[in-house]
Amino acid sequence: MTGPLYNRDILALAVAVAEHLPQPEARYHASLRAPLCGSCILIDIDIDAAGRVQAVGMHVEACALGQAAATLLARHAPGRSIDELRTARGAIASWFADEAGAQAPDWPGFDLLAPARDYPARQGAILLPFDAAIAALETVEADA
Question: What pTM, to 2 d.p., does this model score?
Answer without folding.
Answer: 0.92
